[in-house]
Amino acid sequence: MEINNEVTFKQDFKFFLDSSFYLRLKDFKLHEQKLSNDILILPSSRINYLNKSISLSDESFDTISNTSDMPNIVLGSIKNFNTIEQFKNLKKIEHLKEVAVDKKYDKFFFHIISFADLKKFSLVYWICVPILKVDGLSFRFEQENNSVVDIKFDDSLPFDIVDDSTLICNFLFCKIDTNSGKLELSTLLRNILIKKTLMSEVKKFTLYIISKQKKEFQTFIITPHFEKEKITFDDVTIKGWEKNIDSKLIPKFINFSSLLDPIKMNEQNVSLNLELMKWRINPDLDLEILKKQKILLLGAGTLGCYISRCLLAWGIYDITFVDDGVVSHSNPVRQPLFNFEDVGKYKAETASLNLKKIYPLCQSKFVKMKVPMIGHSDTIDEEVFLKLEKLIQESDVIFLLMDSREARWLPTLIGKSENKIVINTAIGYDNFLVMRHGDLSDENKNLGCYFCSDILAPVDSLKDRTLDQMCTVTRPGCAMMASSVAVEMLVNYLQTKNNSDDGLVENQIRGFLNDFSNIKNIVNSYKYCSACSNSIIEEYKINKWEFVKLALKDSKYVEDISGLAAVHLETEQLLLDMEALGI
Ligand SMILES: [Zn+2]
To answer: Which of 20, 168, 206, 380 has CA atoms 20 to 30 A from the CA of 288?
Structure first.
């Protein structure tokens, strides 16, 4: 065979990009790549030699493990930009040349530039199979008689580069017509031949073409042929951008939103804003710890509604509402989970259902139940107590959002006994209080509870109340502010819980709307506290329902156990002594 046979090159593969490719790119951008726009390697896109196509799917991002698939896989790369402007302003020829010339991309079949709009589920992209060309440089070949050569072929690729002058090629990647003496190679091999000729000054290449069974090979000697003197890399032109359906050289645009399941899209994007916090503002933000929390909301009124919304926005989806009330006509305008048509329905159930309407994949639940209250003998019910105890045991965080102080006593006690995070939120006319009760991790800080500053056990405050005392008469913004502070306090605590140097030392925040001030306090635990003192917790742990029953009947019993009664006696005696001394 004559050495003057010219090698021809052909490139006519079509690309098919599906939605799984986009979702994988989006996931990678959001969680790993973030603000970087470094070139990302796509290790395994499927190539079909028969219909000349390459599929870009989620598999393109994986490293292939099934070796039998390997000859049908090609390497690629993608540069995904942060903004559409960066994509538009890219000097595309220069960029392509940089990639094509880079030795590390020698075996890469294609390159993509893209901008993925994560919010709108759209992708602007342009695929390129770089084709290098130099006027005045062609390649000639001659076929050598087969001889025994020990060839190790990397099965992972359709071709391999052994050294600067030795190439191995899968039979699928070229066409040999021995009758007419034609050798047609992929343009990718031409790129390599040009690069090696101009950069490494190779004068002769050996190309082994492996047969289908990988047992035989044909050997070709390929020599560069210069038609003019002094050809350098500056003479290389590059092209290869894919044309669109109208054969125009412009990028493609796909909006995947109509192709994807709306629930799936919702799931994908619901935490987008949270994930974006990690890009720049707060890279250490631990969203997983938030996601794991099981929340119990005791009270599904104004505070319960706002707190659940704020939790949802933080990516906390396991929320149980507890309430026995029904939605009244005055509720929907203040309580954001209720509408006019919900009037008369149970609050806990309606809040749970409506939260699911906001985010269908949230795990909201409800229990229709009235929390037993200290000093209220009408709430003595062992079954209800056991249900509350179980709910608290199964939760990680308990929010106390009820109307009265005495309703907060039993969950404070059980929460402390079970070492749960308890956050108490209460609102007045133009002020609010948010407080995290001390748990075991705060032991050295000696943090107290809502009742630690009381010198009396809570009593029945619900008797003889006029209408303005029965309803929470409060400035409408108060509940929103208190709810936000309560959830943000929880988030701060969870983020810094295991790092004693960080975080808020104070466990109570009081807010005032008359002068828009906030005050942070440390509430220490009180030795004789009616809800969290050691004597109360111990008594509760030993006698459980028997203790609770007596407390619900009469709060004085709790004062006796906690030592508050003795403190009162001491104080009275002190006053008498002072009187006797004429002070
Ligand atoms: Zn206490």
So the answer is: 20
Question: Does the ipTM surpass 0.95?
Answer: yes
471-476: long-range contacts at Cβ-Cβ below 8 A with a sequence spacing of 24 or more? 471/330, 472/301, 472/302, 472/403, 472/427, 473/429, 474/427, 474/428, 474/429, 474/430, 475/429, 475/430, 475/513, 476/334
Distance between CA atoms of residues 79 and 112, nearest Å: 6
Q: What stretches of 395-549 adopt beta strand conformation (E)?
A: 397-400, 421-427, 431-436, 508-512, 517-521
Count the Cβ atoms, other than its own, within 10 Å of residue 488.
Answer: 15
Q: Kindly tell me if the per-residue pLDDT of 352 is higher than 60.
A: yes
How far apart are the CA of 494 and the centre of ligand 1, in A? 21
Number of other CB atoms surrounding residue 310 within 10 Å: 19
Convert the pLDDT of each residue in 360-409 to its tens digit: 999 999 999 999 999 999 999 999 999 999 999 999 999 999 988 999 99
Q: Is the residue at 308 inside a domain?
A: yes
Q: Which CATH number characterizes residue 17's domain?
A: 3.40.140.70
- Strand order in 397-400's β-sheet? 363-368, 318-323, 294-298, 397-400, 421-427, 431-436, 508-512, 517-521
Distance, CA 396 to ligand 1 centroid (Å)? 19
CA of 451 to the centre of ligand 1 (A): 5
Q: State how far the Cα of 252 lies from the Cα of 125, in Å rounded to an integer.
A: 5
Element (H, E) at 547: helix 534-553
Which tokens go with 71?
């000859």
268's tokens:
């994908």
Helix axes 302-313, 347-358, angle to 10 degrees: 30
8 A C-beta contact, residue 137 and residue 169: no
Q: Among residues 309, 301, 292, which one has the least CA distance to residue 371?
A: 301
Could you tell me the two tokens for 202?
A: 């190779």
Task: State the DSSP string of 401-421.
Answer: --SSSHHHHHHHHHHHHTT-E
Cα(518) to ligand 1 centroid in Å equals 22
Q: Are strands 517-521 and 421-427 parallel, antiparallel or unpaired?
A: unpaired
In a domain, 458, yes or no: yes
CATH number of the domain residue 542 falls in: 3.40.50.720
Range of the domain at 407: 286-568
Q: What is the pLDDT of residue 351?
A: 98
Res. 1: pLDDT tops 50: no
pLDDT band at 251 (very low <50, low <70, confident <90, very high): very high
Q: Would you please indicate which residues are annotated as catalytic (active-site) residues?
A: 471
For residue 89, what are the contacts with CB-CB under 8 A and spacing of at least 6? none
Q: How far is the CA of 450 from the centre of ligand 1 (A)?
A: 6
Q: Of 79-83, 240-244, 331-335, 570-574, which gets the smallest average pLDDT?
A: 570-574
State the residue for tokens 């001889």: 147
Number of domain units in the chain: 3
